[in-house]
Design brief:
Layout: H1 16-34, H2 37-51, E1 58-62, E2 67-70, E3 83-88, H3 92-110, E4 114-116, H4 119-128, H5 130-133, H6 140-152, H7 160-171, H8 175-181, H9 198-214, H10 228-231, H11 245-260, E5 271-276, H12 282-290, E6 294-300, H13 303-316, E7 322-326, E8 342-346, H14 357-367, E9 374-378, H15 384-392, H16 396-399, H17 417-427, H18 442-470, H19 479-494
Parallel strand pairs: 1-3, 5-6, 5-8, 6-7, 8-9
Antiparallel strand pairs: 1-2, 3-4
Length: 495
């Protein structure tokens, strides 16, 4: 079990809610980690009985004593659909899964209680059989756990005092770590690719080629002569002539959003742009390099982001017209009111929280000029049917944002399209008019795959050294330190 030494400032340790939350978390974690044999056997039987309901795909579960197939495989039976293998390493896996359902599986994977050969295939199996497997969410003990999570989710409210520590917890791990797996523009948001699955098709072709070379009648089971470095899609090519598809897709996305801002080709007057959520300055740089009459004021809550963004802006030669401010959007000064011709925000609204969506849109409305102003907001969203359960509980992403090496937005909240529009109507005082809404969500799957490939390819060479520089007492070369590194790695892979 990870020591979980570092916490964000928003855990409310001295409050009643914080005390209850800590007690529940410690109790559940202790129950799951002990792996008490009688309890584990009960949990195992319950989970296996439920898995008997799987009818689509093929899930193979390996335990120290058995191999289970779901659905049961019979002679002559073809297993259509996705195929995944699970290897149960510790009995605590069964307890976590029985107690906490999907969150329990995520934590079991993160802590190494279970191993999976193909998480994507596993998720497909769960999704294709979700109605049959829904009973796990409604078991009495799981419902008790979910109720405690709903009660304690109040600790993630994004109050002004918490918000700075929340974003810092996510981004202030290390700029070097993010540089290892992001494209050179340092965009940390959904890209727009020319095709959605070209990378998967290419990887599949490479996989088939490896199989052909490794297992042919002429070579038996001896490895072929194919260079695995070339075929392994998780490795980044050092050849500078090979185009960086992620970089091209991110640049295409930013140009697409800039087009939505409806900026004129020429202007004798300065056009002011407010960016809510700076990232590492990619959009501010592109805007000011593209239009010599534009000035950008960009706000962030991460001191690490601001530091690197300032360096990148200076290197790009646009320091006079691109300014990064360490500032909460709710603290924007009154002097900025009504002064911006354009407002843009890329995947920052997810950090606002449901309660503050009207406040967010109120700030957007306040900062925009009263006429002829344009705003563009890009956001990840939650499907409407899942939203009611989502806002009442704590999922993997939101629970683990305040862990030892926070990997996700603390207080994060993925709104629905409806909740965004409701917040806009309330906070915008009926002055903001929606021109169009577009869906680029399918491109996020490939974006995440690209990040995952780079993360794995650079983990040993770049990410581990960055973690050790940032937290030398945690990610050291001791056995416990290596365990922490592996937990960190599995957390990001799961994400």
């Amino acid at each position: 079990m990870s020591t979980q030494l570092l916490k964000t400032a928003s855990t409310h340790n001295t409050s009643l809610v914080g005390f209850f939350d800590g007690a529940v978390s410690r109790t559940m974690s202790a129950m799951a980690s002990i792996g008490w044999t009688p309890l584990a056997r009960i949990a195992e039987k319950g989970v296996l009985d439920l898995m008997q309901k799987i009818t689509v795909g093929h899930l193979q579960v390996f335990t120290p004593s058995h191999i289970y197939d779901f659905p049961e495989q019979r002679d002559g039976m073809s297993s259509d659909g996705p195929f995944a293998k699970l290897r149960v390493v510790k009995d605590s896996f069964w307890i976590r899964l029985a107690l906490m359902s999907d969150l329990g599986f995520a934590e079991a994977f993160m802590y190494g209680d279970v191993e999976c050969d193909d998480l994507v295939a596993l998720f497909k199996i769960f999704l294709l059989n979700r109605e049959e497997l829904a009973a796990m969410q409604s078991s009495p003990i799981s419902m008790l756990f979910n109720m405690s999570q709903r009660l304690t989710s109040i600790r993630f409210l994004n109050t002004l005092s918490d918000s700075r520590s929340n974003v810092s917890a996510h981004y202030d791990i290390s700029n070097q770590m993010f540089q290892a797996f992001l494209s050179p523009d340092m965009s940390y948001s959904c890209a727009i690719f020319p095709t959605l699955d070209e990378d998967v098709i290419t990887e599949y072709k490479h996989h088939r080629l490896r199989e052909k070379e490794h297992f042919t009648p002429s070579s038996g089971n001896e490895p072929g002569n194919v260079d695995s470095t070339v075929l392994d899609s998780s490795k980044s090519s050092p050849d500078p002539e090979v185009p960086d598809e992620l970089y091209e897709a991110q640049m295409h996305k930013m140009r697409y959003l800039i087009e939505k801002l409806k900026i004129p080709e020429h202007s004798e007057k300065t056009i002011r742009v407010l960016e809510i959520g700076s990232g590492w300055g990619a959009l501010a740089i592109l805007l000011t390099q593209t239009y010599p009459f534009i000035e950008v004021d960009s706000i962030t809550l991460s001191s690490e982001q601001k530091s690197l963004a300032d360096e990148r802006i200076c290197a790009a030669g646009v320091k006079a017209r691109a300014r990064i401010w360490l500032m909460d959007y709710r603290s924007i000064p009154e002097s900025w009111s009504g002064t911006f011709d354009r407002v843009i925000s890329i995947e920052m609204v997810e950090a606002v929280g449901l309660e503050f969506l009207p406040t967010y849109w109120g700030v957007v409305e306040r900062c925009m000029k009263p006429s002829e102003a344009v705003g563009v907001v890009q956001s990840s969203t939650m499907p409407e049917p899942r939203y009611a359960n989502y806002i009442q509980g704590i999922d993997f992403i939101r629970k683990w944002v305040s862990s030892l090496y926070p990997a996700f937005f603390p207080g994060g909240h993925a709104p629905t399209a409806t909740s965004l529009l409701d917040g806009l109507l309330k906070g915008g005082k009926s002055k903001l008019v929606v021109d169009n809404v577009e869906n680029i969500g399918p491109h996020y799957a490939r974006t995440l795959r690209e990040w995952r490939r780079r993360f794995l390819a650079k983990f040993e060479s770049d990410i581990i050294p960055a973690l050790q520089r940032e937290y030398p007492d945690v990610f050291d070369d001791t056995t416990q330190g290596r365990d922490e590194i592996e937990i960190f790695k599995r957390k990001w892979v799961y994400y």
